[in-house]
Write a structure and sequence with these properties.
This protein is mostly helical. The chain contains 2 helices and no strands. The chain has helices at residues 10-21, 34-39. This is Copia protein.
């Protein structure tokens, strides 16, 4: 993979793949996503980042 993460991260890749597959429109559902069909509104995907990108955690005391 381009992100050079260790093989022990494959579980995260699988979970991410399942999540993303619910965000993609399906031809059999007339262009809507499984998420839209289930929750009756569009999914906000602004939180998605490239796998392996730099991220920071905010710790509030």
């Amino acid at each position: 993979l381009a992100c050079n993460l260790p093989p022990n991260r494959w579980d995260e890749f699988v979970l991410t793949s399942c999540y993303l597959s619910n965000c993609v429109s399906v031809k059999s559902q007339q262009g809507s996503t499984p998420f839209e069909r289930w929750y009756d509104h569009k999914l906000n995907i602004s939180h998605l980042q490239e796998i392996g990108c730099r991220a920071f955690v905010l710790i509030q005391n």
